[in-house]
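User: For documentation purposes, I need each entry recorded in a consistent format: the amino acid sequence on its own, followed directly by the corresponding structure tokens. There are two entries in this batch. Please keep commentary to a minimum and don't merge the entries.

Assistant: Recorded as requested. Entry 1:
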Amino acid sequence: MPKKLSYFNLNGLAEPIRYILHYTNQEFEDVRHDVYSWPDPTVKATLPYGQLPVYEEDGRVLTQSLAIAKYVARGTDLVPTDPWKNAVIESIVFTLIDYFKSVVPSVREADPVKCAELTKEVIEKNIPFYFSKFNKHLEDNGGFLSGKLSWGDFVLCGVVEASDMFLGIDLSKDYPAVRTLVQHIRNLPGVKEYIKSIGPYSIDLARFNLSTMAKKLHYFNFIAIAEPIRYLLHYTKQEFEDVRHDHRFWPNPEFKEKLPYGQFPLYEEGDRMLTQSLAIAKYVARGTDLIPSDPWTQAVLDAAVYTIYDYWSKVGAFIKEKDPEKKKVLKSELLSETVDFFFSRFEKDLKENGGYFSGKLSWVEFVLCGLVEASNYFLDTELEKKYPRVEALVNKIKSLPGVKEYVAARGPNVFKH
């Protein structure tokens, strides 16, 4: 009977479940999602209540960490047969979750001052209140929640470990019975080997908070320099508000005054603002393999994207030209000279690098794709048709997960004069 447990790649609500599954020698698929790119809309939509952990067994789905932990411990001596002992364990684990709910706001708080205040309250008030009582209960019951090892003891261990990671503390140092139990759980057969195989957990709270901040991208309702950013956000599964302004009524003096440099696109994350399309595109791609770690490769990509924008600046001049005759001349120059000058070279770069600018997919290919589409619309052409590798790359980007669904939903580019 195939079993699957889905959660994030850190300890927390699901770690006690993993411990129990390993201790009881149950084979299961340990599915781990990236906490920094959560929520993933495609995964979230499949979850019964839109949250993790989720346990699957033979086509059946179970939610809620405590329900899962108790279920996977069934049929073993981790679940007592005596109803009263079961009730006592449940009363303690529900109280543990009451405590842990006080930890979560401090973890999710993006404001450093508020985060420090919340963390201080947890450490100085909530932990002593709850863990002095948990510690006494363990002392009174032979070091366990009900006189012998049970599924609830695994939950206690997991909550302590998660608190240590999120709060940067050693919670159990002042509570000897709690500390002894945690060490006992971590040294159990199956659990000990599992812990050794995964190594210690860590979390970048600043990055975690950024991933949960409200994100907003402002641009006009057509395809141009913000489209690569939209592609990147959809491909990397970042939820954001796609704010589109009607260019026919632009500039809007009231809104324009609020922009740092009076122009779009504008990206907002929490209370921070970022301008310039290339800076935004590169930023939203951070933390993924779309940004290479090698400095030389980064520089090569920067050179390529700046050259792409050298080309786009000439298209931009054509778009902004109001005089019909001058516009006609600019278009002719673009189609007869400029496009081939740049795109014959882009084609060569792609050919020499396996279809990409640096040997693998990066944020820069998204920029090229978006500006090819924009050029086609404004110049009434299909410029990639003469450049097979450029065409293949554009088709690949538009077929990527997330991008493909977005392209289908957005419909054709419409620039209303």
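Entry 2:
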Amino acid sequence: MTHYKAKIIITVISAISVLICGMILTWYQVISLEQRRSMQTAYKTLNSVETLLDEAKNTADQASVLLSEPCSMQVRTKLERIVISARHIRLIAFYKGRKIYCSSFSDMDAINKSYAGFINSSLAIVKNNTVSPGIDAIVLQTQYPQGIIVTSLSTAWISEIMHFFNAQHHMDLLIDNDIKSSGASLLETGYVIIKSKKYPIAVSFYSAFNIFSYKFITDGWVSLLLSAILSIIVGVLLWRYILHSPSLYENLSKAIDRGEIIPWYQPIVHSNSYGTYGVEVLARWISPSGEVISPENFIPLAEQSGLIIPLTKKLMAQVGKELPEKLEGQLQPFHVGFNFITAHLQEPEFLDECRAFIKKFPPGTIRLTAEILEREPFERVSQLKETLRQLQENHIDIALDDFGTGHSNLNYLSALPIDIIKIDKLFINGLSPDSGSQKIIDYVIEMAKTLNIKVVVEGVETQFQVEYLKKKRVDYFQGYYFSKPVPINKLTLR
């Protein structure tokens, strides 16, 4: 298996793993939601049944004042009126010594025959072919000091309640003996039983960890969608991190070895005569197809990976081969600037590399300039200061590149031996007849003059910028107004 295929497999497996984990979490989430809904429905069902039984209990309380009176026609009439006034109650019966002696229904023998077997239960469901033929009755027994009152209501009302709530979640109603006889077995098979605190009734529902697929989709679609999106994001990030970045690193390393990174030159001109003072050497990646790859696409990676040091060494070697011929007949020392990271400057052999580069030119024809720029704050400033002094002693100028951005700040002007500051184009871009950004530029230029430091202004692109900066007596210009970076065969010296 190739390294490339292994990375693809890792990426795919990681993305699928994220998706599976998301589906499992969604399953638990839907199960929990379903259980909460079932619990809420169970309590609502129980409360509704309790409300019916409350009515039966209240009806018994109303009739209890008649327990002490004989079962006369007047008492039975009053019982009938109480039944009529109660919405769900079908009959009221009085018992003493477990025997019926008065009722709102005229045929007490029929009632006694139907209810006699349940007189020992506080709540029961009985066949009631006398009062409501074909419809069972729920009988609530209420004890009083003078006797027992039995109130009866049709199970049709309970059926309506159960039908309404079963449309949401299936529920079963357990009454008195049902709770005792089947409660334990129901619990063992995954049922939840919610008992009433007021009456011997309970509601049960199935609570095992299984749900229908449509519930999984309809209740968990948001979580499933987020899981899918997250798995795609993880896959893309892993793909880019595992495959793309190392591939670019390998390509860049090979490009350096094959000489595809070549030097281009951007002229730096005198501010008074516009004659060429020197050049800054810039890296360009020329792919095998002839495409010019911008340094923005590979320099950050080179700096992060450490490839910037071998890249810079390659550039110095190439410049040492092609630039001397271009400088034949040059009267004054020609400024040649390279960008160096501080890690390169502090390598033991760096000074020897600079000396070897200078020896490739006729004596006195060039002035090597080390342009330093740190993406992070300089470390071991005292050691760096000593290194820079050694370079100056060997006639190598020190320039602080892109001054005013990153970590190239005022502290380094006082802490390090600097010969030149290069003002970043960021400050020059806003310099126009209608802008008010001149004060910052003026301050930097004046400060450099006070410290006896030369000033190179980068990014000069307009006539106004040239004229304004010339009045401020800057030393040198660099920018598209004079020349873009060009390969050696297009470099023109004034």
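Summary note for entry 2:
The chain has 15 helices and 17 strands.
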